Amino acid sequence: MDCFVGIDLGSTTTKAIFLDKDARILGKGITNSRSNYSVACQVAKEEAEISSRFFLLSETLKGAFTQQQIVEELMEWLSAKFLLAQYKKQLSALKRECLFVLDSWSKHVEEKEKFNHALEKIFFKLEAESTELFQPKQKAKSDFFRDIASSLFLRQAELISKEQTLSFDRMVGIFDKAILRVENQSFAKYFIEYLDFAGNEVSKLPKFKKYEKEILSAIKNAALLNFNIIHTVGTGYGRLTLPFPKEQIRSEILCHGLGAHYLFPKTRTVLDIGGQDTKAIQIDFQGVVTRFQMNDRCAAGCGRYLGYIADEMNMGVHQLGPLAQLSTKPVKINSTCTVFAGAELRERLSLGEKREDILAGLHRAIILRAMSLLARSGGVFSEFTFTGGVARNEAATGALAKLINENYGNITMNISSESIYMGALGAALFAKKDNG
Amino acid sequence: MQNQSAATLKEDSMVLQKKMLADHYHKLSQAKECGKKVVYTFVPGNLNELIWAFDMLPVHPEINALQAGMRKKSGNYVLEAEKQGHSEDVCTYVKCDIGMLKQGNIGPTGEKLPPPDLLLLSYTGCFTFLKWFELLQQEYHCPIAMLHVPYQGDGKITPSMVEYVVGQLKENVIPLMEKVSGKAMDLDKLQTYLDSSKRAEENLVYIWDTAKHRPSPIDAYFGGVYYIGPIFTAFRGLNECERYYELLKQEINERITAKSGPITPDGEFNDQRFRIVVEGPPNWTSFREFWKMFYDEKAVVVASTYTKVGGLYELGFRHDAKRPFESMAEYCLGCYTNRNLPNRIEILERYMSDFEADGFLINSIKSCNSFSAGQLLMLRELEKRTGKAGGFIESDLVDPRYFSAANIKNRLESYFQMLEARRK
Question: Do residues A103 and A15 both lie within one domain?
Fold first, then answer.
């Protein structure tokens, strides 16, 4: 199948989008950017390819069944089982790497045995919990194996290290080293194995048993599908490290503009808050950028700010927004500097302020920085589209909506669940434009 | 894009300018032994002809600072000044100069600079200049000649403004210069220098105008800062300055005939995709890297305002031997940063149309309020008037901590891609 690919090599995450020849989104993939951009690029592309297979699988099933409800249900089950198979593969790799790290670190046989035993117990638990994690209709806790595995691993490690009087810090050290090694491996290449697993598991279920033949045939087709990439365009901070000629590279400002225009054609102003930069972009009726402003030398108020705060609070970054939304009385955070905000956070905590109220204040502080950039770019015009990783954070979008309303009145604000992919989407659209 | 290596492209004018600078700094290092008096003064509104008429030698502190920036020495000097108690927000030219002074006052060519016998403040449009000389006076305990230059708030120079400046020249500045130099004012000598200045100015106007050609034979910003070297600093009024512009004009004419572009550190730049107007001073600490970001994107600068800080000759001003004091007063009053925002917008608008530019870029300098205040307003107004896209980047003069290469490159690439996308 002919397709166009866009890759957004961001400072925190790398995203990929596959488009078909009619500029229809086939699939999307995301991964941590890590220190190794080429692996990140490869992994995101593989993820997007798998996602494309799922999209086409769903199309095939829609053709095979008249009842669309069955297709939806089937897809949810297939997707959950697929992710489970992939998770199990990653978990076994993580176990292998943890044991490897332990082996290379520990000199004392007795100590090594103790840790070995502890790790076996941890992974036994993780393995046993895995099926529960991937259920249909269950919202994924995170897109990243690192996030899911780390919270579960650390919880078990804390219990077991207490129980067996082992150093918890050492356990964390082993995990940190091992997860890096796991992240540099490709797990998508086993997609046929995962698809087979998903097909067999789902068609065994009583309610789908009668469709076994159709399911397995559709799965087989999806697995055998061949993608012919006609053109690729790269964007994002790491774009220059992509193995493409200059003509295949576009600034993320142009890509976010075009991506936003594709999803919301009436967009005139775009705000993108990414990992280390914030951009206020004005576009015309064709999605062409007419003006933009970016944060200057300082990255305070970007996604990384939230990452830093999450570390300070010993939480996952994806947990910040939901907690901040519980706030009833947001505190005013004065520091625009990330490091000072960390200090202010600790001070507020020591004064007895609630975590959710402090977090709500921090989210507002980020958005205030963005408001200043929007003003400098010329203001906010309807429709206004919010893109980038931070657009997934509901506390941030809430604060933004409020401030936009206060400053610019009633403006239509678009936020898509695909907002983090906007740059990659724009890049894929450029790939198509260049070779369309 | 570049056809020849830079090594083969050292033009005669470049060689001559280098020699002129080396000779001048050498003369400065020998000044005390030779009994020469030294005047520290600033580039905007400088009274170079008057300084030479009194047979004194000029030193331009901001030129030393930018030279230190280009030679990667300014970071250390800035830190030295901060150690002395100057805050992070002070103009980095000032801090670089103070730091250089504290570390022995060694000039750009490695020779020691002499202390001043006179601080000649001939342009007060920049408030920092006042404070700067106040600081230098504390160090050197020498007299200050101050010429108060009224701001062109209404966008024009009135006869009473000229009269006011001429009065100060005659009543305060010249008597003090006579006292310091021990020589009487020699009007004939001054007029000879002013005549020479006029001839060099005519040639400079011709040179800026050549950017109307396609490809442009000059880069009016990155190359331009070299072209203004002699006329804005120690040499205006001297024969060698005239010679430099004759030579430069000849070289540029040859490039026009050959249909070739300006010479960059990477060689000749002929494939020019974007014609850009630039507002604001350049960054000096990463000057070459900054320039490369333009020519790598095939962008040539066809006009810039920074290269007019020492005179907007294309608007008609010339030093005039027949009106020596009046023309010197008009020169001081006509500085680019002494003009109000509507006037600056008009100048930029005119550059955009005269040079058929594709867009304009503002390099907003953290430490220069004279330039930076109001630049976003200028950007919006210019976009409205010209229908062309403006770009906005931020850096600093000589503090290397404020040049974020990845960030600036990202903005510039985005800007040029935006221009390209809007062309289609």
Answer: no
- Asked if this assembly's ipTM is beyond 0.90, the reply is no
Tell me the average pLDDT across A178-197: 90
Closest in B402, B418, B422 to A297, CB measured: B402
Q: Which residues of A touch B406 (CB under 8 A)?
A: 237
What domains, with CATH codes, occur in chain B? Answer: 9-188 (3.40.50.11890), 189-423 (3.40.50.11900)
In a domain, A257, yes or no: no
pTM of the model: 0.84
Contact state of A253 with B421 under an 8 Å Cβ cutoff: no
Q: Is the peptide bond before A206 cis (omega within 30 degrees of 0)?
A: no
Instruction: Tell me the pLDDT tens digit for each residue of B91-127.
Output: 999 999 999 999 999 999 999 999 999 999 998 888 8
- Kindly report the number of other CB atoms within 10 A of residue A326's CB atom: 13
Q: Are A242 and A7 in contact (CB under 8 A)?
A: yes
Q: Which residues contact B97 (CB under 8 A, 6 or more apart)?
A: B61, B62, B64, B65, B77, B132, B136
pLDDT at B1 over 60: no
pLDDT in the model for residue B290: 96
Could you tell me if residue A109 is inside a domain?
yes
| Residue A17 structure tokens | 């989008």
Decide if B389 and A296 are in contact by the 8 Å CB cutoff.
no
Nearest Cα neighbor of B100 from B90, B89, B111 is B111
Highest mean pLDDT among A106-110, A212-216, A296-300, B324-328: B324-328
Asked if B394 lies within 8 A of A289 by C-beta distance, the reply is no
Q: Enumerate the H helices of A252-381 as residue ranges.
A: 252-263, 303-312, 317-324, 338-350, 355-376
Number of domains within chain A: 3
